[in-house]
Q: What sequence folds into this?
Protein backbone atom coordinates (compact mmCIF):
# COMPACT_ATOMS: atom_id res chain seq x y z
CA UNK A 1 0.00 0.00 0.00
CA UNK A 2 1.04 3.56 -0.42
CA UNK A 3 2.93 5.16 2.51
CA UNK A 4 0.06 7.47 3.50
CA UNK A 5 -2.41 4.57 3.84
CA UNK A 6 -3.77 4.10 7.36
CA UNK A 7 -3.60 0.87 9.33
CA UNK A 8 -6.83 -0.72 8.14
CA UNK A 9 -7.87 -4.01 6.59
CA UNK A 10 -7.28 -4.43 2.88
CA UNK A 11 -11.04 -4.49 2.22
CA UNK A 12 -11.30 -0.97 3.72
CA UNK A 13 -8.67 0.59 1.48
CA UNK A 14 -9.53 2.49 -1.68
CA UNK A 15 -8.16 0.58 -4.70
CA UNK A 16 -5.90 3.54 -5.59
CA UNK A 17 -4.04 3.07 -2.29
CA UNK A 18 -2.90 -0.45 -3.26
CA UNK A 19 0.10 -0.49 -5.55
CA UNK A 20 0.41 -2.86 -8.49
CA UNK A 21 3.17 -4.67 -6.61
CA UNK A 22 0.88 -4.94 -3.57
CA UNK A 23 -1.93 -6.44 -5.66
CA UNK A 24 0.50 -9.01 -7.06
CA UNK A 25 1.78 -9.91 -3.58
CA UNK A 26 -1.78 -10.35 -2.25
CA UNK A 27 -2.99 -12.29 -5.28
CA UNK A 28 -0.08 -14.74 -5.15
CA UNK A 29 -0.12 -14.80 -1.32
CA UNK A 30 3.64 -14.21 -1.25
CA UNK A 31 2.99 -11.62 1.46
CA UNK A 32 2.09 -14.48 3.81
CA UNK A 33 5.64 -15.92 3.79
CA UNK A 34 6.89 -13.79 6.73
CA UNK A 35 4.16 -15.33 8.88
CA UNK A 36 5.94 -18.67 8.58
CA UNK A 37 8.52 -17.24 11.00
CA UNK A 38 5.69 -16.73 13.51
CA UNK A 39 4.66 -20.37 12.96
CA UNK A 40 8.22 -21.56 13.61
CA UNK A 41 8.37 -19.43 16.79
CA UNK A 42 5.11 -20.99 17.98
CA UNK A 43 3.15 -17.71 17.98
CA UNK A 44 0.91 -18.90 15.15
CA UNK A 45 -0.32 -22.12 13.63
CA UNK A 46 -0.50 -22.91 9.92
CA UNK A 47 -4.27 -23.34 10.32
CA UNK A 48 -6.37 -21.16 12.58
CA UNK A 49 -8.37 -17.94 12.60
CA UNK A 50 -6.54 -15.14 10.79
CA UNK A 51 -5.21 -12.39 13.07
CA UNK A 52 -7.14 -9.15 13.01
CA UNK A 53 -6.15 -5.53 13.50
CA UNK A 54 -6.79 -3.89 16.89
CA UNK A 55 -9.15 -1.39 15.22
CA UNK A 56 -11.45 -4.13 13.87
CA UNK A 57 -13.69 -3.89 16.92
CA UNK A 58 -16.76 -5.58 15.41
CA UNK A 59 -14.71 -8.66 14.50
CA UNK A 60 -12.99 -8.69 17.90
CA UNK A 61 -16.33 -8.57 19.73
CA UNK A 62 -17.80 -11.35 17.57
CA UNK A 63 -14.74 -13.54 18.07
CA UNK A 64 -14.64 -12.92 21.83
CA UNK A 65 -18.27 -13.98 22.13
CA UNK A 66 -17.58 -17.23 20.28
CA UNK A 67 -14.29 -18.09 22.02
CA UNK A 68 -12.24 -17.81 18.84
CA UNK A 69 -9.33 -16.18 20.70
CA UNK A 70 -8.86 -19.36 22.75
CA UNK A 71 -6.73 -20.84 19.94
CA UNK A 72 -3.60 -19.62 18.21
CA UNK A 73 -4.14 -17.54 15.08
CA UNK A 74 -3.26 -19.15 11.79
CA UNK A 75 -1.98 -18.39 8.33
CA UNK A 76 -5.04 -19.95 6.70
CA UNK A 77 -8.32 -21.55 7.63
CA UNK A 78 -11.87 -22.38 6.65
CA UNK A 79 -12.93 -18.75 6.12
CA UNK A 80 -10.05 -18.06 3.73
CA UNK A 81 -10.84 -21.16 1.71
CA UNK A 82 -14.48 -20.08 1.49
CA UNK A 83 -13.53 -16.56 0.36
CA UNK A 84 -14.83 -14.88 3.52
CA UNK A 85 -12.80 -11.81 4.43
CA UNK A 86 -12.81 -9.35 7.31
CA UNK A 87 -15.47 -7.16 5.68
CA UNK A 88 -18.09 -9.56 7.11
CA UNK A 89 -17.13 -9.76 10.80
CA UNK A 90 -20.13 -11.77 12.04
CA UNK A 91 -19.85 -14.38 9.28
CA UNK A 92 -16.08 -14.55 9.65
CA UNK A 93 -16.27 -15.10 13.42
CA UNK A 94 -18.96 -17.77 12.99
CA UNK A 95 -16.88 -19.55 10.35
CA UNK A 96 -13.79 -19.38 12.57
CA UNK A 97 -15.78 -20.89 15.45
CA UNK A 98 -17.08 -23.65 13.17
CA UNK A 99 -13.52 -24.42 12.04
CA UNK A 100 -12.38 -24.68 15.65
CA UNK A 101 -15.33 -26.93 16.59
CA UNK A 102 -14.74 -29.29 13.67
CA UNK A 103 -10.93 -29.28 13.61
CA UNK A 104 -9.30 -32.63 12.96
CA UNK A 105 -5.99 -33.72 11.49
CA UNK A 106 -7.85 -34.35 8.24
CA UNK A 107 -9.34 -30.84 8.13
CA UNK A 108 -6.01 -29.29 9.13
CA UNK A 109 -4.36 -30.91 6.12
CA UNK A 110 -7.34 -30.14 3.90
CA UNK A 111 -7.19 -26.39 4.65
CA UNK A 112 -3.47 -26.30 3.90
CA UNK A 113 -3.96 -28.21 0.63
CA UNK A 114 -6.88 -26.03 -0.45
CA UNK A 115 -4.87 -22.89 0.27
CA UNK A 116 -1.84 -24.21 -1.63
CA UNK A 117 -4.10 -24.98 -4.59
CA UNK A 118 -5.48 -21.44 -4.59
CA UNK A 119 -8.89 -22.04 -3.03
CA UNK A 120 -10.66 -18.90 -1.85
CA UNK A 121 -9.93 -15.38 -2.91
CA UNK A 122 -7.87 -14.19 0.02
CA UNK A 123 -8.28 -10.62 1.13
CA UNK A 124 -10.22 -8.63 -1.38
CA UNK A 125 -7.89 -6.16 -3.00
CA UNK A 126 -9.66 -3.74 -5.27
CA UNK A 127 -8.66 -3.25 -8.86
CA UNK A 128 -7.76 0.17 -10.04
CA UNK A 129 -4.88 2.57 -10.07
CA UNK A 130 -1.58 1.78 -8.48
A:
Amino acid sequence: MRPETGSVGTHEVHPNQVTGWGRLLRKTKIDELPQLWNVLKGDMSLVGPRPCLPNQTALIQERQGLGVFNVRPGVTGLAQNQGIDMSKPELLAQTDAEMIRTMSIFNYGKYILLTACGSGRGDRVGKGGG
